[in-house]
Structures are given as structure tokens and as C-alpha cells.
Amino acid sequence: MNFSGWRYHCCPALSYKGGNESDLEMNSEHLKRIEKLQMAMAAANVDAVFLYSSVNRHYFTGLTTSNGLLLVERHGVPVFYTDFRYLEVAHRVLKGIEVRKFKPAKEQLADYAAAAAGWKTIGYEGNLTVAQFLPLQETMAHAKWTSISSMVSALRAVKSAEEIDAIRRSAAANDALFADLMDTFKVGMSELEMLRHFRMKLAARGLAESFAPILCAGTNAVECHHEPDDTVLQPDSELLIDMGVVVDNYCSDMTRTIFFGEPTKRFREIHSIVLEANRAALAAIKPGVRCCDIDAIARNIIKDYGYGEYFDHSLGHSVGLEVHEQPALSINCETVLEPGMIVTDEPGIYIPGEVGVRIEDLVLVTENGCESLSHTPHEIVLPC
Questions:
Q1: CB of 256 within 8 A of CB of 278?
Q2: 8 Å CB contact between 159 and 341
Q3: Do 346 and 356 contact (CB within 8 A), yes or no?
Q4: What CATH number should be reported for the domain whose range is 21-156?
Q5: CATH 3.40.350.10 residue ranges in the chain?
Q6: Which pLDDT tens digit goes with each residue over 114-151?
Q7: In the chain, which residues fall in CATH 3.90.230.10?
Q8: Where are the alpha helices (DSSP H) in the chain?
């Protein structure tokens, strides 16, 4: 196929909107997110939450800093703590949030203790480090501590129109980068050479990767999360590429398994099964359907063809500020899909020593069904 022709037809030039902190200004959407958090806290009888992770701080404020804490009480004005490096920008862009400078550790804990006198239940993120958590727990030992990770994940799961637009542009940028790579990757290149090309082209576009790309030449494709090495792409062999970029802080994710040369009968067979599972799952994604039921649809197709044991990961995951979010399209997730959720649809078959195929699309749940945000062709054959 003429891949260059497809590229210019489907992937017009994109303008990349950067994430410079000096251009940020907290908007009403972030304040609404905090209000929703406070409503969820009230429903769960949580009096205050400590948000340390940079991604959650960004979600609720729009500001990215390497150090900080967002303290949200059920009632009242949230407080954003940070060090001197970020005080000026925090004061400038955070509206409706009080900004304070971190004090030395003992004084800071004393401030928390004074504020916590009336708190009965305090929420913390499940990924808080022991070094962060223990001093808090010891200082406010009178209160019950509870993880609010699932609470925050549920809020982040349904994307706003602004978030959807960013992820849509991220997916389009990923499609365009993939097309450029297809004009560059050649038989005889090693996986590490291809990785270097990926990162050079990424940097030239002013983008960042949403995760370390997975590049699998030949039978390395049977390793779901293979790390690129010096394996050389041979004539008449496959290449599995799993990649994503970040646009305006939001991630994309897509996988294609392509063939250089004339595809073997075995490759065509496995690829067609995986594509059938991918398409069936896509057709079933809509509001009101449980995540586990979507997983079962794709899994049962692969199982019926006799390859069930070779598909041993979940069908997909949510994507947003992080490339892996909740909910997940997995056998263990009973979350019901809602409009605004964005998930991956990525069935795969990995037969050791033979062939590995994964096909992954980024999918938006709409009011009446879904929309694929990935527009790169599924079946790609390139000359040796």
C-alpha cells in the first residue's frame, strides 16, 4: 500500500498547543472538579483529603509542579501548599484556592494538626509513600484514615469536553507520527534504531511520549511488553508497535502489528482473529454496559477460535492525564460505562516462538455508542 498517500489524506498538519505554566490560568472547570470532589467527600463522610500526586494536583488545579500538596476540606476554601519555586505562579493562576508556602516539617505538621481538630475522617491517596503517610497519621492519630483513590479515579474517569478535545488531538498527533515512522522504518533496522527514530521525530514535533514505546521485531512480538533491544527487523517478518504521545498533558495510546513483505498464512489467520475481536468489542462499547462484559465479548471470540490461553491480559484501560487510568475493560471490573469515558480496545494473541498480534484503538464512549479516536489503518503491509 502507499502509506505516504494515506498519511497526507488522513493526518493533516497539527498545531501543538504547549503546556507552559506561564500561560496557565485556573478556569471554572477546575473549580467544578473540586466542588464534585467535595460532594463525593460529603457522601462518604470524609472531612478532608490530602492530594500529593502531581497528576491529581494538576487535575484539580491545572497547575503542574514537582512539589506540592492540595488540601481540600469538605467545606471551605482549598489550600495549595508548595515551595518558593512555584509560589509566584501559584498565586497568579490559582483562583478560588488559598496558596501557602511549605514550612519546615515539624511546623507544617503542627499546622495540619491545628486544622484537623474537628476532622473525624481524613482521605489520602493510595499511592502515598510511607514517608509521607506515617507523619500525617501520627500527627492526626485521633482521625480515621481512608484511601480516596477510587473516589478520585471515578471523578477523573468521565472526561469533560475540554479533556476530550485534548485527547482527540493527542490521538491525531499519534496517528500522524505513526505514519511518518512507516516512511522511515526499514528492514535491517534494529529495534533500538527504530526507537531512536521515534524519539527524534517526537522531539521534532514538540511532543512527549505517554509511555516508553514498545517495538517488537519478528517473534519478539509474542512479548506483550517487550523492551526494544538490538534485534534486527528481517525481511518477511512482523513488527508490533505500541505507542502514544502527550498533547496538552493528555495521553494517547495505539498499537498496530504490521508486516514487511508478504504476510504468512499464520500471520493473516491470527491478525484476522484479533481484528474480529477488536471490532466486536468496539461495536459493543456504549453507555450502560459493564466493562467486564466488553472484555468477555473479545475474549470469547479469541477463545472460540482456540487461542484463549494466548490472550492473558485485560482488553483495555482508561486513558487521560495518565496512560493507564480507571476503569479498565477487564474481567474484574464491573464499572458501567458512561458518556465521556475514554478506553482502549486492545485484544491480542501471543503464541510463543511463532507470532504475536495486538491491535489497539483509543475509544470515546458517546451518548449513544462510541467513537474510535484512532484512525490508522488496522491492516498494514509494507515492502521489504
A1: no
A2: yes
A3: no
A4: 3.40.350.10
A5: 21-156
A6: 999 999 999 999 888 999 999 999 999 999 999 999 99
A7: 158-382
A8: 3-10, 28-43, 54-61, 87-93, 105-115, 130-139, 149-157, 161-182, 191-204, 265-284, 291-304
The C-alpha atoms of residue 306 and residue 204 are separated, in whole angstroms, by 44
Burial (0-12, 13-18, 19+ Cβ within 10 Å), 8: exposed
pTM above 0.85, yes or no: yes
Q: Which grid cell sits at 145? A: 484514615
Q: How far apart are CA 251 and CA 207, in angstroms?
A: 11
Using DSSP's 3-state secondary structure scheme, residue 139 falls into helix
Let me know the angle formed at the C-alpha of 263 by 353 and 6, rounded to the nearest 5 degrees: 125
Query: Which of 205, 292, 217 has its CA nearest to residue 252?
Result: 205
Who contacts 25 (Cβ-Cβ below 8 Å, separation ≥6)?
62, 93, 95
CATH architecture of 158-382: Alpha-Beta Complex (3.90)
Per-residue model confidence as pLDDT tens digits over 103-113:
999 999 999 99
Position 379: which residue type?
A: E
> Phi and psi dihedrals of 10, rounded to 5?
-100, -20
